[in-house]
Design brief:
The protein has helices at 30-36, 82-86, 90-93, 118-126, and strands at 8-9, 14-16, 23-28, 39-43, 50-51, 56-62, 66-70, 75-80, 102-106. The protein is 20% helix and 32% strand. A hairpin with a 4-residue loop joins strand 1 and strand 2. It has a six-stranded antiparallel sheet with strand order 1-2-3-9-8-5. The protein has a three-stranded antiparallel sheet with strand order 4-6-7. By secondary structure, the protein is of the alpha+beta class. The longest helix has 9 residues, at 118-126. The two termini are 15 Å apart. It is globular.
Length: 127
């Protein structure tokens, strides 16, 4: 399992893309998708919602359990991925591509720097 080097990671197993024009993309890691099993339902924050770093902002339901989705940063949701709502299996099959969850306009771009690097996240999940 590889974690893309260009992404940042939270200890709650979310990833964050590079910030472009104040906006970053959020998803869950392959590690989290594998641990959850087959995802059958996704509840995402709505466009216009404000999410707060470390707080629940949605839900992922698998055949095994229901898991909270935590915001890795604070800001305003500017886009939600309707494709994963319609086809939750995308989170399992392409967690770093088509299985992204939402885009957020960060209230403070320095929040991204506080997240784990790919190597730090790999070490965290190995422990």
């Amino acid at each position: 399992m590889s974690n893309p080097q260009q992404l940042r990671y939270s200890k709650e197993h979310e990833w964050l893309s590079a910030v472009e024009d104040g906006v970053a993309t959020v998803g869950i890691t392959e590690h989290a998708a594998n641990a959850l099993g087959d995802i059958v339902f996704v509840q995402l924050p709505a466009v216009g919602d404000t999410v707060t770093e470390g707080e629940s902002c949605g839900e992922l339901e698998s055949t095994k359990s229901v898991s909270e989705l935590y915001a890795p940063v604070s800001g305003e949701v500017v886009e939600a991925n309707q494709d994963v709502v319609d086809d939750p299996a995308l989170v399992n099959t392409a967690p770093f591509e088509g299985g992204w969850l939402f885009k957020v306009r960060l209230s403070d771009e320095s929040q991204a720097e506080a997240l784990l690097s790919a190597d730090e996240y790999t070490a965290f999940t190995a422990g």
